[in-house]
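Hey, I'm writing a tutorial for new members on how sequence and structure tokens pair up, and I'd like a real worked example in the thread rather than a made-up one. If someone can provide the structure for the chain below, I'll link this post from the tutorial.
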Amino acid sequence: MFGRGIGAERTWLFVGAVGVAYGVLSFASLYFTRFGAEVEALWVSNALLTAALVASAGRHWPWLLVAAACGHFSAHRIAGDPLGLSLAFLLSDLGESVLCASLLRARPSALAMQNFAGVAEFLAICVFSAAASCAATTFGNWALGAPLSGADVLIWLLADALGLFIFLPLFFGLDEAQWRQARARPAQLLLALALVFALAVIGAYTQSPIPRLLSLPLSVVIAFRFGVAGVELALSAILVTWVVSTYLGHPPGAWPDLDMRGYLLLAQAFVAALAMTVVPLAVILEDRERLSMRLAEAAKADATKREAEKANAFKSRLIAMASHDLRQPVLAAQSYLDAIETRLRDPETQALCVKATQALDSMTNILEALLDVSRLDAGIIAPRPRDFPVSEVFERVAAVNRPCAEAKGLLLRVETSPHIVHSDPSLVERIVDNFVSNAIRYTERGEVTVWTEVRGDMLAVNVTDTGIGIAPEALPSIFDDYVQLNNPERDRSKGLGLGLTIARRMASLLDLRIDVRTTGGEGSTFTIELPLASAQAP
């Protein structure tokens, strides 16, 4: 199928094959469908060339046209056409293919035939291209002194339009979805096509109208069962069978006072009416099937998402309960160790007790972090905003973190602030505490300072350290889960890397903005902006 593209190494082989196939199809049409006149009742060659042009790069078009021209001219000359008529037909046919291919390249959705609008657009392009070719041929014959009759003009128009509309999608290659139904039931498809062929032959040889009447419901069944691919194959079988049977002297009808040309014109008209009925039907059915599949996939994805959310909520609640239950024995163990340490006199045993206490402290911090994250994920934490003095938060944060800062030889400075803000004091305290503990963890010397500044109707609470700072490339990830800078060995005494994650989630819950400013090697400043109480807002 041409729609899959042509590799560069096969270009010349492809061009040659198109030229030969074009010449063979042209000669077959001239030989079997002319009946002594100058126009053909079936013309498939232009569908082949158009499909090749649509599938090929623009730089290959001249070579394809040259190859097709050689095949076209040879076929007409072998069929006995005069030189002038052969050239006139050559120009009109190649012009039709170039025009149709150009329009389809500009509107690729038309050839795809994915919906009714695409079918209508594809039909319009085929008819317009065939009409342009027919007009050129009519003018050429008139100029050469061999004008066409009205019947011949209609036969030419229908031959080219039907050739493009029925055979072009088959030459170009329908997509996998359009072949899916046909490939899923190959035996049934062959049986249906055999019935189509049998009805066409019976209608031609008996000239009874019943086979023609049965062709329509059979084509509708094929549209439902096998989609666009099945319909295109059935239509091509009917058209070819009737044209060839007419050549053999068995036209598909017994209308009075009609010559062979009239029989051909009526056969073309019947196939055209059939095509314009069943092809849109097949496309609409496939479009609805695709829509149903998308809706089913969306419903499945939505159900999967809901199940995942329920599972995640259950997991978060489970972790929250487990963390809470685990924290109690850990706190009890810390109390027992403190009591034991006061009773010990051996320095080495006391040192072991201190290390055990530190390990339990690390475990407590990890459990607290897991508890906070799980409660946030489960939606258990609900903000309770109120007016409160920010100095109360600072005092509690300083009391908790000052021993750790002093143990590292750091100065923890907390500037006094008279401001009153409106938020949840418990969540704000956790955010500021995470900023301070994070600053102490990554500062080896110097100080950590908590200070404030008024920014309009907001109070910016800043935590500045003199630590190692943060590299610019690491800034986007510092608030992600389990991210720890400068801790490649994953020392759990330094936490899990959830402090800033918890701060970000709590700030998001309060609809507050967090900011960070840093200079590598010179420290960082983490900031959260709190709304001032209405009485203090400017």
